[in-house]
Amino acid sequence: MADHQEDEDLKLALKMSMQYNPPEPKRSKPIEESGSGSQSGGGESPEAKSRRLQRELMAAAAEKRMVLFPKSPPPVQNKARDLPIAVVANKDDGVVKSGEELGSDLGKELSVEESDQLFSMVFGNEVSKSVLAQWTNQGIRFSPDPETTIGLVQHEGGPCGVLAALQAFVLKYLIYFPDDIGKASPSKGVWTLSKHRYVASDSFSSVTEEAKTRALVKSMCEILFMCGNNNRAVIATSTNFEDSSTNQRDEAMAGGLPIESASDLQKILRFETFTTQSSCLNKLQGTITAFQSRMGALLFLISALLSRGLESIQADRDDPDLPLVTAPFGHASQEIANLLLCGEAVPNVFDGRMDLGGGMFLKGISKNVEVGFLTLLESLNFCKVGQNLKCPKWPIWVIGSESHYTVLFALNPSVQEENELELRESQIRRAFDARDQSGGGGFISVEAFHQVVQETNIRLPTEKLNDICATGFIVWSELWQVILELDQNLGGIKDSTGMMGKKVFDIYHFNGIAKSDINGGGQAMAVEGGAVPTQRPRLTKLNVSVPPKWTPEEYMSCAMPSSSEKDSEVNQPKPVQHAPLVDCIRTRWSRATCSWTGDPPSIV
Fold first, then answer.
1. Which of 5, 317, 414, 532 has the most CB atoms around its CB within 10 Å?
2. Mean per-residue pLDDT, 256-279
3. Which PANTHER family match (predicted)?
């Protein structure tokens, strides 16, 4: 009878120990206090005594568990084991989150259909392994070189459009928003006080790793929310990024391709949606190693695409059947660059839309941007960059060539300040470009010209008006000459005083791709000794001189020195140098001349 009572007490104790909200525990009775008293401790058999002691130990353990964990919920399956998401460690504060704590941060999987659509949108239906290797072996990392420490290093040829756009925003925070990335005072770090305003200095090596990381995280957050119409940001990460988070590129390259198909992408990709910038920043800070890993550039591109929405991306494009990564070399398309610069994956660089008639139109840049874009193709008359990209809020531009993206930036925002006549020129040019339906060809109809004249209050003499309209269309270059010769009181910008002056300023160019260092006999080493020349990103400082806005004839007559001045060294201008980058700069500042020290800046 006593054994039966003890069994019941033990079952009750074990049952209560597993309850979510247990009642007051019932303690099992000692044998000697049992009511029956039929079997005392002295007459207890060894087998019975052993069973009794075992039951009492188990009951005591159950009671102890109830006291220590009175509110413990019933055990549930650890969902972190179902999805191979890495444990995230915050090295800054020493907090390590286990998979169970990350239960709400595991992210979602793309459906099979979404993965197919995403993979096809980015790479197309047929993509080579070499292109996939370019896009899956490029992390987002800063240069270890002190001279280029604020720059992102590019090892592969394809993702330069992603890195250059991100680099432009990073520079915006490092140069113009040092307080936002944790600097105590703008006068400490890369900023100095000059003429009652803060102007950045070129002591780039003084920027701390913490400041660079904060600038990177803030840049990523800003771009993603811009892509999400400032309502949301989607962050995509890989389930196996912990295996390739090393900073050694050779180790990342040692393994096979992380993805070769849409099904591979669906297996390893996870994403989360954020509606506040604070939560997005925290997530980016906690998973920054994923973006520093071998798939970092691709993960950030996917994050931007998902933030915009795959359907919206396709609606932005003029030809949604083409892949965003162009064949056969895997270059980032203009749509990728525009997505990261303005939040829309439009394929063109002109302002607004271009109506082709019949309900068809081409899409351009719909708004002014934080950082801009210039391209060598404009100097070759292949396109026309609109004012939205050409005159961004901050003097930072992504530079596009035929096959590469680099970054141009100034440390002083005054390089974009315009005097009264320059503002007048911008006003007329914007009105003209708004009616230019030639795709940047630079001409409008007579009807559109009359609208421009009325909108900008230009009062041309009747004879001049008839001459310019005689051909049935108006070319910008011809109109510009007329405006230059028209007095200001008639709406022109003729400077009868000749006091407009010229601009002189410094500007910097950064090329993040590792290039052969031909200084110091690098080429000779490669040829004679078989050694590989040193490779590193390059930062070039250029001095830019922009002449007054005179007509070409006036400029040439004033630029030519007289015979008495030819022998004077004081009047000799700085040696003028040329490189393809100068042609890009001239699309922003016409007739600018540039000079630099050392090798010419490279945009390829």
1. 317
2. 92
3. UBIQUITIN CARBOXYL-TERMINAL HYDROLASE MINDY-4-RELATED (PTHR12473:SF8)
Amino acid identity, residue 21?
A: N
Residue 396's DSSP bridge partners are 409
Name the nearest CA neighbour of 603 among 545, 542, 546, 543. 542
Tell me, rounded to whole angstroms, the distance of Cα 526 from its chain centroid: 35
| Integer-rounded Cα radius of gyration of the chain | 34
Is the previous residue joined to 328 through a cis bond, with omega within 30 degrees of 0? yes
Q: Which residue has the higher pLDDT, 83 or 508?
A: 508
One-letter amino acid identity for 389? L
Question: How far, in Å, CA of 389 to CA of 400, rounded?
Answer: 12
Out of 37-46, 64-73, 130-139, the most confident range is 130-139
Full-model pTM: 0.70
Rounded CA-CA distance 541/546 in Å is 16
Q: Give dist(CA 298, CA 601) in Å, integer.
A: 27
- Among candidate residues 421, 344, 346, 423, the one with its CA nearest the CA of residue 391: 423
Query: 152 - beta bridge partners?
Result: 142
pLDDT over threshold 60, residue 531: no
In the numeric block, which tokens belong to residue 87?
């444990």
Contacts of 369 (CB under 8 A, 6+ apart): 341, 342, 388, 389, 392, 393
Q: Is 488 helix (H, G, I), strand (E, B) or coil?
A: helix
3-state secondary structure of 558: helix
> Amino acid identity of 179?
D
439-443-446-452 Cα dihedral, nearest 10 degrees = 90
- C-alpha distances out from residue 513 to 6, 220, 602, Å: 78, 20, 10
Rounded CA-CA distance 494/458 in Å is 13
Number of H helices, E strands in the chain: 22, 18
The pLDDT value recorded for residue 156 is: 74
Sign of torsion over alpha carbons 169, 170, 173, 174? negative
User: Other CB atoms closer than 10 Å to residue 70's CB: what's the count?
Assistant: 11
Name the E strands within 411-532.
443-445, 473-475, 503-516
